[in-house]
Design brief:
binds 5'-O-[(S)-butoxy(hydroxy)phosphoryl]adenosine, 657 residues, alpha/beta, eight-stranded mixed beta sheet, single chain, globular, seven-stranded mixed beta sheet, 19 helices
């Protein structure tokens, strides 16, 4: 690994004639700030929380609790409102500054919303929520496309103290129902339809399907529907209400509810290695500080900047890096409704040129796809406004990193490979622009407050690292402000998943190495979580969707390597006795998963087999399946523990014939 090239910070970033001076501008400054942040977190984060956030009541205790006791809390006694911090205080100072640039699905549909207008809209929506009886602590589910009203909905919830639970609009009715029921939503916010890549998405119809379930129907009192396309949609009198009609009745002034720093701000469901999706709970003060401080230091956002994150609001990246982080800083954030290839693969570069974007944040899977389509789609675009290019969601391969750096950044931008998770709330390992020399494929150094460690999974002790390739499991040794506080209604699962595997540590679930420069290299999940195009999927959930099909006896799902999507899903399925295999069965089973979880979860391949490789006690050895799909059938290791070693030959033939 010593042959890996180190890229110095581009000189342009440190030249005040060309760029605003980065908030941190030397490695020494980063090191001293980081040291203070982990050695005196009370001092460091107390100051940062007073600098970046506005508190209606000051906190006294900066840091409380521990990983041992599982009761982490920050800024106790402090009171603040996230919507006040993201909207009011900027609207008061700078009402005409653009808060949101919405680039619609068609490139000519651009809408700009100022902080002043945002304040009126958020306040009116907050009054709509109140008129419908929503109060502090109530749960509201949001199933909406990438439009400003979705951000307004989240901020309105925060304003009245309701806990939002955004469900990615690519999830199926079944997945939406499970989330609505688990969080106990009293209200669902949606749109008639969504629009993406020239196609309509039937959001309202999916909400109706989800609410056909009696448990969901018993909880949800109203569905508020925003008109996005104007198509005719089914209507349930009494339950369904039009967004514009409710808004027109509402006052545009609404006092923000004072919230305790530890009051919940939102729930966001994510997949674990086993069981149902987990409702990750984030609280108000610590989360908002994490989102704001990482946008400030990692994206180096200055007042004149136009910052753009291409994630979907249905994932945590959208929460922290489209909505809460940039708006808490009073920045201009771009909200993108379309896809990287609509109407053609120049869309991102057109967007950057048109809005003079300064920070651009996307995922390796998009970079790989655009790189593959050819440089002609980038040529001729003026990308000189860019200073920082971010990557997130999965490890970025050096070919994609180099392309992003050379073709998009023209070697003049800082590439920030940002490592984090739904549970961490904000970025925890990343370079800082103007500070950190970069290496393609490494997320480099920890953010403030983060003290990572690499543990030996067999002993649970800190690993003795003797070479750059030594890989252990990544853990964090002390609490940080934006970490998740619990799993909704299941604190023991929270403790079991993150805090008990390695006592005294937060366990990330990823393998990692650390090189001789102290840089971290994330190697991918060590549990049964698969990462397809940056979407986190649980093998157990996909298996359970497959065995719901009437023909399936047993299913095992593993991740294969994929040049485009990072990983892809391979399902191994055995059929019930008497079921005949037919030509369309593979397709039918893929559809089954798409229908039960969502289109993005569909397996790439379904292999119909007679027998799974099992141990004598009947456990499927997924390790063997994983090796076979990745072409490592000559490195299967010890297969003598298999009940029936001869099945391996048949499996190899099935996959590789
Ligand atoms: C998992 C978390 C948090 C943003 C979106 C995904 C993987 C995330 C990186 C990166 C290598 C990464 C990890 C992590 N991951 N960013 N820069 N390099 N791997 O959030 O759905 O909660 O998934 O994504 O495996 O554990 P998420």
């Amino acid at each position: 690994m010593s042959s890996i090239k180190t890229h110095p910070v581009p000189a342009r970033l440190l030249d005040s004639a060309q760029c605003p001076t980065p908030f941190v501008n030397s490695l020494e400054q980063y090191k001293s700030m980081w040291t203070e942040s982990v050695e005196q977190p009370e001092k460091f984060f107390g100051n940062l929380a007073r600098e970046l956030l506005t508190w209606s009541k000051p906190f006294e205790t900066v840091k409380h609790g521990s990983f041992e006791t599982g009761d982490v809390a920050w800024f106790l006694e402090g009171e603040l409102n996230a919507s006040y911090n993201c909207v009011d205080r900027h609207a008061l100072k700078n009402p005409d500054k653009v808060a949101i640039i919405h680039e619609g699905d068609e490139p000519d549909q651009v809408r700009k919303i100022t902080y002043g207008e945002l304040l009126r809209q958020v306040s009116a929506m907050a009054n709509v929520l109140k008129n419908l009886g929503i109060r502090k602590g109530d749960n509201v589910a949001i199933y909406m496309p990438m439009i400003p009203e979705t951000l307004i909905a989240c901020l309105a919830c925060a304003r009245v103290g309701a806990v939002h639970s955004v469900v990615f609009a690519g999830f199926s009715a079944e997945s939406l129902r499970d989330r609505v029921v688990d969080c106990g939503a009293r209200l669902v916010l949606t749109s008639d339809e969504g629009r993406r890549g020239g196609k309509n998405i039937a959001t309202k119809r999916i909400v109706d399907d989800a609410l056909r379930d009696p448990n969901a129907a018993a909880l949800v009192e109203h569905v508020v529907v925003f008109r996005r396309t104007g198509s005719v949609v089914p209507w349930e009198q009494g339950r369904d209400l039009w967004w514009d009609e409710e808004m027109s009745k509402a006052r545009t002034v609404c006092a923000p509810e004072p919230m305790n720093a530890e009051d919940p701000l939102f729930l966001l469901y994510t997949s674990g290695s086993t069981g149902a999706p987990k409702g990750i709970l984030h609280t108000t003060g610590g989360y908002l500080l994490g989102a704001a401080s990482t946008v400030k230091y990692i994206f180096d956002v200055h007042p004149e900047d136009v910052y753009a994150c291409m994630a979907d609001i249905g994932w945590v990246t959208g929460h922290s890096y489209i909505l809460y982080g940039p708006l808490a800083l009073g920045a201009t954030t771009v909200l993108f409704e379309s896809t990287p290839t609509y109407p053609n693969p120049s869309r991102f570069w057109d967007l950057i040129q048109k809005h003079k974007i300064t920070q651009f944040y996307t995922a390796p899977t998009a970079i790989r796809a655009l790189r593959r389509l050819g440089d002609q789609w980038v040529e001729g675009y003026d990308l000189s406004s860019l200073r920082v290019l971010g990557s997130v969601g999965e490890p970025i391969n050096p070919e994609a990193w180099d392309w992003y750096n050379e073709k998009i950044g023209k070697d003049q931008c800082s590439i920030v490979d940002t490592y984090w998770q739904t549970e961490t709330g904000s970025i925890i390992i990343s370079p800082l622009p103007g500070v950190t020399p970069t290496k393609a494929g490494s997320a480099t150094l920890p953010f403030f407050g983060i003290k990572p460690v690499i543990l030996d999974p067999t002993t649970g002790q800190e690993m003795k690292i003797t070479s750059d390739e030594d890989t252990g499991v990544l853990a964090i040794t002390q609490p940080w402000p934006s970490m998740a506080r619990t799993i909704h209604n299941n604190h023991s699962r929270f403790l079991d998943t993150y805090l008990k595997p390695y006592p005294g540590h937060y366990f990330c679930g990823d393998g990692a190495s650390r090189d001789s420069d102290g840089y971290y290299w994330i190697r991918g999940r060590v549990d049964d979580v698969i990462n397809v195009s940056g979407h986190r999927l649980s093998t157990a959930e996909i298996e359970s969707a497959l065995v719901h099909h009437e023909t399936v006896a047993e299913a095992a799902v593993v991740g294969g390597n994929d040049d485009l999507t990072g990983q892809c899903i391979h399902a191994f399925v055995s059929l019930k006795p008497g079921v005949e295999q037919h030509d369309t069965l593979e397709k039918e089973l893929i559809l089954q998963v798409r229908k039960m979880i969502g289109p993005f979860a569909g397996p790439k391949r379904v292999h119909i087999i007679n027998d799974h490789p099992k141990t004598r006690s009947g456990k499927i050895m997924r390790r063997i399946l994983r090796k076979i799909v990745n072409g490592e059938q000559d490195q299967l290791g010890d297969i003598s523990t298999l009940a029936e070693p001869t099945v391996v030959e048949a499996l190899i033939l099935k996959v590789h014939n």
